[in-house]
Amino acid sequence: MAKSVDEFNKKRLRSSNITVVISIALVLFLLGLMGLILINAQKYSDYIKEQLVVNAYFDENFDAKDSAKIAKLEEETFKKVQTLAPVKKATYITRDMAAIEAKKTMGIDSDALFEENIFPSSIEVALKPEYVDPAKIDGAIKIIKSVPGIVDVKNDSTLMVDVYNNLSRILKWILGFSILFLILAVVLINNSIRLKIFSKRFIIKTMQLVGAKRRFILKPFIIEAIILGAIGSTIGILALGGVWYYFTSQIGSAFVQDNNQYFWLIVLVLGVGVFISVLSTIFATWRFLKSNVDDLYYS
């Protein structure tokens, strides 16, 4: 009879641990997925912002005999523009290149309409994402325009503002959902741990009644919480990695190439799983340590 009771208790304990691990894994999988989406959304947002370029133009009025000298000056100006704080990338476009691009745009194959290169040479500047901010872009343009040799800087400011505002709005929504999932992770993991501790409330109180100190009673529960949290987090991370690998292989793109960000996401997910498990265990166990014996039947 005693053996059957022990076996029943072991099965119930095993089932309780499995339930907690699965709960932690599922919740952290969703939390990690939102983290991946947020990381890649931020990078994709920066990529789109970098495609919004401004064009810095050189003076187109000069004597043809000075063309070699002007070309050298433009090259020096181009190098200076590349070193400016707001500049992410700069591309030097010569008059010949500008003419070729104009022909492509207008669908013209012949040189009949172009007796000479009527288009000025320029620099196509991709700004750093933070300088695409409507509050900073005017200052960035002034910095570029102040470089000797640049006579004009043009950009489609309306398009930039619209794109920036839309991307910022999307990122805020994703960030909001990520915070919501973090809160849900805390609540769901906490509830799973509390149910597990609740099933052991009589054991906790019995240990206390026979003289065990609170620290002694807490220690095995905390160790178990660390183990269950780590196992659940690891399963969630492995599932997340598998799903993300399948997704990126299907679309043929790895999105963010910076493995450091993935590493810190893994550390965050693992840390959240262990931290919440331990914290929930301490609070739930402490509650029964402070309660009276009679309260255990009505908790």
TrEMBL record:
The chain crosses the membrane at residues 20-39, 170-193, 221-247, 262-289. InterPro entries: ABC3_permease_C, FtsX, FtsX_ECD. Its main location: membrane. Coiled coil: none annotated. It comes from Chryseobacterium pyrolae. It is a multi-pass membrane protein. Signal peptide: none annotated. It is found in: Cell inner membrane; Cell membrane. This is Cell division protein FtsX.
